[in-house]
Write a structure and sequence with these properties.
Two copies of one chain form a homodimer.
Chain A (H helix, E strand, L loop, with lengths): L4 H8 L3 H8 L7 H13 L6 H7 L6 E9 L4 H14 L6 E8 L3 H14 L3 E4 L5 H12 L3 E5 L10 E4 L2 H15 L4 E7 L5 H14 L5 E8 L4 H14 L5 E4 L4 H10 L7 E5 L3 H9 L2 E6 L2 H17 L7 E4 L3 E3 L7
Parallel strand pairs in A: 1-2, 1-3, 3-4, 4-5, 5-11, 6-7, 6-8, 8-9, 9-10
Antiparallel strand pairs in A: 10-12
Chain A binds a DNA duplex (16 and 16 nucleotides) through helix 2 and helix 4.
Chain lengths: 342, 342
DNA sequence: ATGAAAGCGCTAACAT
DNA sequence: ATGTTAGCGCTTTCAT
């Protein structure tokens, strides 16, 4: 039988109210008494009952805020599914949640969304942080004011968040490199399409991939293109690359612009000539896995990322955890036409 | 603000007790009144609050039983981790759980474990059912007596269970076939190691694989061996197969006996000659992925299987769901040396 | 600073 | 057949 505050109250010869105040640092209790209560609670192995707490605090429930750079990028659909799924599971706890979606990587826009949620009042925040000093400072101030923060999919340095939930980008690059090496039998001329932002995580994916491809002397990186995270730009750049380099037989899409790039291949009727490797399971990728153009794609469990972010955030708020900057990496999985989970 | 039984009671002009009795079919309420209450509840969009219910029924908590054919097979370690993780998450709901582990596929032993749990009294059961008429009948009788059942990892026909949580075995075979075809560049002489039980799911894995390999005219299935789900038998059979067939350059372990088979390869010093494909991420597989002997393994998310089984079972019990024979397939994921999650 | 008591939504034992 | 009431473990308001 688990120990309750009632048990502690009896053991400490005080009332349940005092135990509650002491254990939750609500103030208004003699320091000596508080210390004694805490030590007794620890001795008895007290673990607060989350569901009872949730029932009791139902009148002013936990408020969650979410800010995602999701507009115009189909990758986020499943992250949002995960967020909503976790939210539904927690609905009995009486929580509320507001999702703010934005397009691209404009820090001013993100700061604006942050301000909006701050004014409405939130106890926790899930965010895909844009890694700039201004965003960093804003998040740290938010955290100082008592709001718990979980970063989803994108990491940011020097922010005292509770957790980063996302993939290991370097490792995802390695995984891609390995599958490229193995399935092309170590013979290929590779074109790499990246985003132009010099985004840290994109770079990691390229580095991870090339570090593995070093083991294959006959795989040559023939050309790079920058898609600027825009499908149209990607479409044009891929076209240009393929027309310029007749030798290219393999394409590696790091992220963003994959849909446009695949369209370019079809418009050039170069499906037969090319083997394509991508990330994630967005509709265009699934379609082309089925058609055989895309050989494999690396999945990073977007649903799990969304769901875990919300769950960890709620957990942190309920148990008053102190920020630990924990890295929670989701699995990286190779998908071919048979094991897609679109 | 969610609607509660109190709201319904007021709307129906009855007491909360009557609403509770009506909504939960506890009997002792006028059929007409019950129908009216139910209709009002539906109209108001009533959703029972699980955590309040759990708090109230804490004195006689939900009792879960688990029966796994896990002894001697490292695959199950992560299933059990998943089961325990879900159990921990539900601990605030005051549930109890007993895990019974057994070795191999002896139906008498399984029926015995079933009897044990039945005598102790359980509200729900997670089981890896041995697909025989006796087990089928025993499970159906259990279900008729009001116990919810979830099948984990193994499916069974004609049992009115709540859900099967596990992988799609045919699809896992296809996925393996595709990776074998792609990474061997369509050229190989294949040895297949299966279990001897003629187990349905093993057969599906072989069929799935060969159905895909039909697309590769130069991949030949040179030999089959039966490991009888025993590491020693597997060790000997693999040795025999490799010594007999000098041409074999690729091995496909369907399951059970992988550890012993890998050991045989090492003892024969044939690591250089062979490319191996396996299932799951058991220690021996991880080790040999790192060494390069195993090219890829197909993961079926054992942790998720365990956790989901328990969660779905609990959910079904709490909400009195009627058995639906739902198939919940976990993801199938290709793992190489870079994205293992051992 | 501490205690007492009401209440969160639901169940179950006891009255009527 | 229906109503009333006392909790489940915790928070919160009101007394003291």
């Amino acid at each position: 039988m688990p120990v309750t505050i009632k048990d502690i109250a009896k053991a400490a010869n005080v009332s349940r109210g005092t135990v509650d105040r002491a254990l939750n640092d609500r103030g208004g209790v003699n320091p000596d008494v508080a210390a004694r209560i805490k030590s007794i609670a620890a001795d008895m192995g007290y673990k607060p009952n989350t569901i009872a707490k949730a029932l009791a605090t139902r009148s002013n429930p936990v408020r969650l805020g979410v800010i995602l750079n999701s507009i115009g990028n189909p990758f986020w659909d499943k992250v949002i599914d995960g967020i909503n799924s976790a939210y539904d599971n927690l609905s009995d706890f009486g929580i509320s949640m507001e999702i703010r979606k934005m397009r691209g990587y404009d820090q001013e826009r993100q700061l604006h969304e942050l301000e909006h949620l701050k004014e409405k009042g939130i106890d926790g925040l899930v965010i895909t942080p844009i890694s700039t000093p201004k965003v960093r400072d804003a998040l740290n101030e938010l955290i100082r004011s008592g709001v718990q923060v979980v970063c989803c999919n994108l990491d940011i340095d020097d922010v005292a968040y509770q957790a980063y939930v996302g993939c290991d980008y370097f490792c995802s690059g390695q995984t891609a490199g390995a599958i490229i090496g193995m399935t092309t039998h170590g013979e290929s001329n590779l074109g790499i399409i990246t985003s132009s932002h010099g985004l840290y995580f994109h770079e990691m994916r390229v580095k991870g991939c090339t570090s593995v491809l070093k083991n294959y002397p006959n795989i040559h990186i023939t050309d790079y293109a920058e898609a600027e995270d825009d499908e149209e730009v990607s479409y044009n750049e891929v076209k240009k690359m393929l027309l310029k380099n007749e030798k290219i037989d393999t394409l590696y899409f790091v992220t963003g612009g994959t849909t446009g790039g695949l369209r370019a291949i079809h418009d050039l009727h170069m499906e037969k000539r090319l083997r394509v490797f991508t990330f994630d399971q967005i509709p265009a990728v699934i379609e082309n896995l089925k058609s055989g153009l895309v050989i494999a794609t690396i999945d990073q469990q977007p649903f799990v990322q969304g769901a875990t972010s919300v769950r960890m955030l709620f957990e942190a708020i309920m148990t008053k955890q102190i920020p630990t900057r924990r890295q929670v990496f989701t699995e990286l999985n190779i998908k071919n036409r048979y094991n897609i989970t679109g």
